[in-house]
């Protein structure tokens, strides 16, 4: 645009993960750079819940979901193990009577078999679908200190089950403490046996995430019968946003993924392994990450979702 000092040219860009604005202002032949982030608007981007669905139950088959609470203060959480109510949403072969147990390290800190109506108001506030009175689904609302936790969903007979983890704070965007990574492990099989991890990003800016579908690398941790060749797909509203089969197939991408894993404390993947991984910058909204076997393979798999700094 013209000015008394000559033509003014403004060029800028926004880095989505950090919401930092940078660019240049050119007046005549003088170029001035600028960069910054609004000091009056605090970023509130974060993950606020996880849901994982897979076939589990019976001898030796469980759905294991892990999560980490960051920060320094306790956080209220709502944790559910859903089986029979899934039938109302068209899921066949559901787990008839799931139970949940929450662990910190190797110590059980809470458990539930059949949920109680006293928690119904909390579920409604969080936007979780209602559970019919008297259903054999499991649920608990509790306050947890920062740290790493795991939720085990199991039942006396096999069936499709879903684990749900909700940030139950009254205003999660205002809390410093937050969910910084979430993961689920289960047995991938054909049909409804796909391992599905749903998650929600909320706040006022995009969030950069590392998402991994792990199979063969689980063997190094003593897991038997791993999914030999997992494939990972990330969806929003039924559309595929990204997918990956073998994480290290492209050397430049593999280096970026390795660096990102180191930043968040994720275990290292061996070069050439058939695990899957992607890095995505996602706008606030609801997403699903699905892990299934290439060429119809079956076995134990892990889906991981990490918040990148």
Fold and architecture overview:
The protein has 309 residues and is mainly beta. The chain has two domains: 40 residues, no CATH class; 262 residues, no CATH class. The strands form two sheets. It has a 16-stranded antiparallel beta sheet that branches. A three-stranded antiparallel beta sheet has the order 1-2-3, with no helix packed on it. The model has no long low-confidence stretch (mean pLDDT 86). It is 7% helix and 49% strand.
Largest beta sheet, briefly?
Answer: 16 strands, antiparallel
Count of distinct structural domains = 2
Number of helices, where a helix is a run of at least 4 consecutive DSSP H or I residues: 2
Show unreliable segments. none
Task: Give the helix proportion (percent range).
Answer: under 10%
Succession of helices and strands: EEEEEEEEHEEEEEEEEHEEE
Mean pLDDT: 86
Over all CA atoms, what is the radius of gyration? Answer: 22 Å
Beta-strand content estimate: over 45%
**Total number of strands:** 19
- N-to-C CA distance: 38 Å
- Give me the secondary-structure category: mainly beta
Q: What is the global morphology?
A: globular
Write a brief structural summary:
By secondary structure, this protein is mainly β. It contains two helices and 19 strands.
How would you summarize the topology of this molecule?
Elements: E1 8-15, E2 20-27, E3 30-36, E4 46-56, E5 63-70, E6 75-82, E7 99-104, E8 107-112, H1 120-126, E9 138-144, E10 147-154, E11 159-167, E12 178-188, E13 195-202, E14 207-214, E15 230-236, E16 239-244, H2 251-264, E17 276-282, E18 285-293, E19 299-307
Antiparallel strand pairs: 1-2, 2-3, 4-11, 4-12, 4-13, 5-10, 5-12, 6-9, 6-11, 7-8, 7-10, 12-19, 13-18, 14-17, 14-19, 15-16, 15-18
